[in-house]
Amino acid sequence: MSHWLVKSEPNTYAFADLQRDGRTVWDGVRNFTARGNLKAMKSGEEVLYYHSQEGLAVVGIAKVVKEAFPDPSDESGRFVAVELAPVRELKRPVALAEMKANPKLADLQVIRQGRLSVSPVTDDEWAEILRMAEG
DNA sequence: GCCAACGTTGGC
DNA sequence: GCCAACGTTGGC
Questions:
Q1: Considering the entire predicted model, what is its pTM?
Q2: Which domain holds residue A80?
Q3: Nearest to A100, CA basis, from A119, A117, A114
């Protein structure tokens, strides 16, 4: 099972919106690296939910409930979407600044490549972020 | 609000 | 196929 991280601007679609909706189509990704990551997601895999622009923290865990399919918002047919459902809110948000300050997370892809909206998280990184959130 | 980083587009 | 120009993202 792989783990992932997705970014969303909370004033556009916050984790609370996902909790309210129950599930959502994760569309609008227009970056080929991110597309590759979306295509690699398998049902049931868990995803860290990061708030960009405002919050700047991982706030919750979601899971993949539908694997990659053509992005309904993309007329070119080149991009894909998945569906995500909420798992739970973290006990405590883990801020980007904390992750940057943690040597165990030095290779976290979202830190190394800040603009990537969908990125993989290794098992060790996943465990470390959850430890930071929940002890 | 600014600016750096970087991915995509399009002309050649 | 290269590369300059452009647009967008996202942290600060």
A1: 0.95
A2: 3-128
A3: A114
